[in-house]
Amino acid sequence: YRAIVEPFFQRAKQPEVIAKVEALIAGMLSAALVRDSIEVVNDFALPLQSRALTYLLNVPESEADIWIGWGIHVFKVTGGEFKKGNVLEEYLAAQFDRAEANPGDDFFSALTQATHRGRKLTREEMMGFGNLTFAGGRDTIIHSISSIVAHLGRNPADFEFLRADPKRIVHAGEEFFRVFMPLTHIGRVCPVETDVQGVKVPPGGRVSLAWSSANFDEAVFDAPEEIRLDRKPNPHISFGFGAHLCLGAPHARLIVRSLLQALVERVSRIKVLESREHIEHEPRYERANGYESLTVKLTAR
User: Fold this and answer.
1) Chain centroid offset of residue 3 CA
2) Tens digit of pLDDT for each residue in 232-252?
3) Per-residue DSSP letters for 18-80?
4) Domains, the chain, ranges and CATH?
5) Left, alpha or beta for 125 (phi > 0: left; psi -120 to 50: alpha)?
6) What is the C-alpha separation between 261 and 23, in angstroms, rounded?
7) What are phi and psi of 116, to 5 degrees?
């Protein structure tokens, strides 16, 4: 399955894609620096991730305008006036219809032309790939970007630490991923009765694999509550691990490292003006992850 779409996600390692992402960030940062303030979540992180995703999927950059219009949360909407998930489903269906009729060299066409174990993919399987790509690679990176910008604004010593030696950016990016993980947990269904550390889980019962807990494991990380931008080793599992390592990890790393590089080269100060945390409300708990809005003032070097 992974082999069908992996070439697109590996595009994040190609020099031409890296150059396009760096140029995109440079242009957006130039625009932000001449403004009195910028709202990071909707006016910076969302368009940045959306346009960068077009490079990954090898589709026209104009498609990003449609994706930006969906907002941050593809499957959730406040007010209940409509379900954004339906908008995504309709969009994906139209793209697969187009690709089947006139295939090209883009992500959607690859899925319509792919075979798995001697058969073509079903439309349901294609939709599954599409949903994972857009839902899994959207608010995850957006929240990471906003969390990092807020941290550097509120911790100028860390910003100066990176500016003093930009080679520290790689390790800093991994530490940011550990603390501000793109995905805090993922659910799984137990097919048979299971014992999880003394807790009985019945057949069909759900368990949560909590990356957020594992990334703060005192047995693995020294002083896990501290953000150490030079932490190494840093065996975080924000992108999973092993055979199920997140396909989007190279893309996320490219965006975060390129953004950090641009910030240390061109920005002397980030001042947080206003912020509103993104709180995920679940039946049994609440968790903070990123921001709903984050307004900052950027001062050029």
Assistant:
1) 21
2) 999 999 998 888 899 999 999
3) HHHHHHHHHHHHHHHHTSS-EEHIIIIIHHHHHHHHHHHHT--TTHHHHHHHT-S-SS--TT-
4) 2-72+138-300 (1.10.630.10)
5) alpha
6) 12
7) -140, 120
| Cβ-based neighbour number of residue 95 at 10 Å | 21
Structure token pair of residue 68 = 């930006």
**Rg of the chain, C-alpha, whole Å:** 20
Write out the two tokens for 123. Answer: 């439309």
Which residue, chain included where needed, has tokens 């379900």?
83
pTM of the model: 0.92
- Which residue is listed with tokens 């190279």? 250
- E-strand ranges in 133-266 read 186-189, 194-196, 199-201, 206-209
Contact 64, 170 (CB under 8 A): no
| Residue position matching structure tokens 């940045």 | 48
So what's the pLDDT on residue 75?
A: 60
Task: Report which of 150, 11, 8, 145 is spatially closest to residue 72, judged by C-alpha positions.
Answer: 145
